[in-house]
TrEMBL record:
<dbReference type="InterPro" id="IPR006058">
    <property type="entry name" value="2Fe2S_fd_BS"/>
</dbReference>
<keyword id="KW-0560">Oxidoreductase</keyword>
<protein>
    <submittedName>
        <fullName>Benzoate/toluate 1,2-dioxygenase reductase subunit</fullName>
    </submittedName>
</protein>
<dbReference type="InterPro" id="IPR008333">
    <property type="entry name" value="Cbr1-like_FAD-bd_dom"/>
</dbReference>
<dbReference type="InterPro" id="IPR039261">
    <property type="entry name" value="FNR_nucleotide-bd"/>
</dbReference>
<dbReference type="InterPro" id="IPR047683">
    <property type="entry name" value="BenC-like_FAD_NAD-bd"/>
</dbReference>
<dbReference type="InterPro" id="IPR012675">
    <property type="entry name" value="Beta-grasp_dom_sf"/>
</dbReference>
<dbReference type="GO" id="GO:0051213">
    <property type="term" value="F:dioxygenase activity"/>
</dbReference>
<keyword id="KW-0223">Dioxygenase</keyword>
<dbReference type="InterPro" id="IPR036010">
    <property type="entry name" value="2Fe-2S_ferredoxin-like_sf"/>
</dbReference>
<dbReference type="Pfam" id="PF00175">
    <property type="entry name" value="NAD_binding_1"/>
</dbReference>
<dbReference type="InterPro" id="IPR001041">
    <property type="entry name" value="2Fe-2S_ferredoxin-type"/>
</dbReference>
<dbReference type="Pfam" id="PF00970">
    <property type="entry name" value="FAD_binding_6"/>
</dbReference>
<dbReference type="InterPro" id="IPR050415">
    <property type="entry name" value="MRET"/>
</dbReference>
<dbReference type="InterPro" id="IPR017938">
    <property type="entry name" value="Riboflavin_synthase-like_b-brl"/>
</dbReference>
<feature type="domain" description="4Fe-4S ferredoxin-type">
    <location>
        <begin position="30"/>
        <end position="62"/>
    </location>
</feature>
<dbReference type="InterPro" id="IPR001709">
    <property type="entry name" value="Flavoprot_Pyr_Nucl_cyt_Rdtase"/>
</dbReference>
């Protein structure tokens, strides 16, 4: 039984390659035609030094001139010596182009479209074979009939043959117009990726997820993945929107609450006349306790005003989380925090 190794490059491109038991990562990458920078191949020069964000491995043999004991303790590895003993995520300190890697292009077909919300569209793409990516990542999806593409996060888990997306219905938008007016089941669609450093790390402490509008999408992917990779860490999701019409995927969130131990969520609507239990912004309904004295990982996905609002809230609490992961996107009239 082998392992999968996610190689993350500085420009956001991710390639996932198979690695055989006992095989150095550099050899696995080379088989996949990925040229991780190498020189000596003996653990002596340090040219292939990477950082392992998650996973278990054997360091192999190396000299301190190539990597210090302190670096090894921090998770750095030499790709020519590292032998994984589980699936791993490696950050490669160079661009994909320098390693002669291109983001892969794929084609799928529209398998479902849900235009039920006045402000969002959800749709699925079916592929011939499952797609590997990290939960929370995104792709650049080409707009049919236009020479343009849009970046959308997966809302489905890795390893499925149907990919799901949740997008904002932007008035006058190219993709929105296609989805509302012309899209039909069976239409071919192409995309390139996966991309992004916003993805779920192995849960090692309480997690606070904060979503603004369609920034919920990557969290749906993460929560779906956790369904088959359970954790005993508590996870709380705050989901903020402008109006009650913007609230989507509530049945899915309720299902996660029932199936994932330790998961809870709350919704907040900016419009005080919506009749919802919580009004205002997500940060209005958080306290310093949600940061667990700093021993917490915080993930935020939403428009820039929301992200900056969360930063200001954390500054006011005087508590900094262990890790703070952010994905910003440009959208029209979406807030959710201040």
């Amino acid at each position: 039984m082998g392992y999968t190794i996610a190689l993350q490059f500085e420009d956001g491109v991710t390639r996932i390659v198979p690695c055989n038991p006992g095989e150095p990562v550099s050899d696995a990458a080379y088989r996949a035609k990925i040229n991780i920078p190498l020189d000596c191949r003996d653990g002596a020069c340090g040219t292939c030094k990477c950082h392992c964000e998650s996973g278990a491995y054997e360091l192999g043999d190396y000299v301190e001139d190539a990597m210090t004991a302190e670096e090894a303790a921090q998770g750095f590895v030499l790709a020519c010596q590292m032998r994984p003993t589980s699936d791993c995520v490696l950050k490669v300190p160079t661009t994909s182009a320098a390693c002669k890697v291109e983001a892969t292009a794929y084609q799928g077909r529209l398998s479902r479209i849900d235009r039920g919300s006045p402000t969002t569209v959800t749709f699925g793409l079916t592929l011939d074979k499952p797609l590997a990516f990290l939960p929370g990542q995104y792709v650049n999806l080409r707009v049919p009939g236009a020479d343009a593409q849009r970046a959308y996060s997966f809302s489905s888990p890795p390893g499925a043959t149907e990919l799901a997306f949740l997008i904002r219905d932007v008035p006058g938008g190219l993709m929105s117009g296609y989805m509302r007016e012309r899209a039909a089941i069976g239409d071919p669609m192409t995309f390139v990726g996966p991309y992004g450093s916003f993805y779920l790390r192995p849960p090692a402490r309480p997690i606070l997820m904060l979503a603004g509008g369609t920034g919920l999408a990557p969290f749906l992917s993460m929560l779906s993945w956790l369904g088959s990779h359970p954790t005993d860490q508590p996870i709380r999701l705050g989901y903020g929107v402008n109006t009650a019409d913007d609230l989507v995927e509530l049945p899915a969130l309720d299902a996660f609450r029932r199936s994932l131990p330790g998961f809870s969520f709350f919704t907040v609507v900016v419009d005080g006349a919506s009749g919802r239990e919580r009004a205002g912004y997500v940060t209005d309904h958080l306290t310093a306790d949600d940061l667990n004295g700093g021993d917490a990982d915080v993930y935020v996905c939403g428009p820039p005003p929301m992200v900056e609002g969360v930063r200001r809230w954390m500054e006011r609490t005087g508590v900094a989380p262990k890790h703070f992961y952010v994905e910003k996107f440009a959208a029209v009239h979406e807030t959710g925090a201040r």
